[in-house]
Write a structure and sequence with these properties.
The chain is built from five helices and three strands; from the N terminus they run αβββαααα. It is 45% helix and 20% strand. The relative contact order is 0.22. It has a single domain (5-124), classed as Sufe protein. Chain: A (Alpha-Beta Complex), CATH 3.90.1010. It is of the alpha+beta class. The chain has a three-stranded antiparallel beta sheet.
Length: 129
């Protein structure tokens, strides 16, 4: 499979790999996928009291496109606000990484993981919008 330069860059040099404390009040954690289906993505974000995403990290198990998707997403939402992160779609990710059709499900998993992380953070803060 031929991958774009952007995808190869994020796969070979992933940004923000790691983990935060799941129990921290300022951290939201989201998971998508399953080991049985060949890919798991865990996204985390740390949010300050003004709603700015001050830090992000991810862990991924799966194909290069999934690792690149986690890296791109962690890089993209860092420094923004929750509303901006919630607005990121799989289509933006497909475009940014030039994902081939056979790997576009990785972008869907990334979108699902960030939505779950945002919801986890809001649940901890008791924010219901």
């Amino acid at each position: 499979m031929v991958y774009s330069d952007a995808l190869r860059d994020h796969f070979e040099q992933p940004r923000h790999v790691g983990a935060f404390d799941d129990g921290a009040e300022d951290v939201g954690t989201g998971m998508a996928g399953s080991a049985q289906t060949g890919g798991v993505l865990r996204m985390q974000l740390r949010v300050d009291e003004t709603g700015v995403i001050t830090d992000t990290c991810f862990k991924a198990y799966g194909p290069p496109a999934l690792i690149a998707a986690g890296s791109w997403l962690a890089e993209t939402i860092r420094g923004g606000v929750l509303e901006q992160a919630a607005a990121v779609t799989h289509k933006q990710l497909v475009s940014a990484l030039s994902l081939p059709p056979a790997r576009q499900h990785c972008a869907l998993m990334a979108e699902e993981a960030i939505q779950a992380a945002i919801q986890d953070y809001k649940d901890k803060q008791r924010i219901h919008i």
